[in-house]
Amino acid sequence: MGPLVKLLPSVYVAKGAQYPIVGQISEDGENLYLVQIPLLATIIRIAIKEDGSLSDIILGRFDEKLIGMDIVPSNTLFKVMNDTGIDTKAGYTNFEMIFTGVTDQSVNVLYREYSAKDITKPSVQDLTYPRDAKIIRFREIKLAVKQVTNEKITYTVLEDGLKNRLRN
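The structure assignment produced for this chain is given below.
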């Protein structure tokens, strides 16, 4: 293990270690990467500038800004690495819901879920909802139906399950 970089009084990252970029934010017109650093009891996300240098923004588990960042050495740089593989250990669910039409009595949706081990063979499920349904729910997805015609469905995503996953 290489030298350690001090981020907070009790947070260190190893030189050469890889940490996931979990989002982007904009602060004062500057685009910043959010890098997730795991801790024993929680996680933090530090904001990294496009040149790899640290900004002064650290977010806690519930998006609260943390203060007291002490970087040693002060010229610490992160390098953005391109990883085109699928992270099979993360437990992500890759899926799509496809509107397939309506009948006089029902709204039809096709659900496809893809495995990280074989994205060419999805698990498929036909879903049927009452034609006058105002809410469509399947697993962690909740949609508010605005309008349904033979050609399209107009909806608003009310829940997608992402919020709970990001906080865990």
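Interim note for the steering committee: The chain has two domains: 4-66, 94-167. The longest strand covers residues 118-130.
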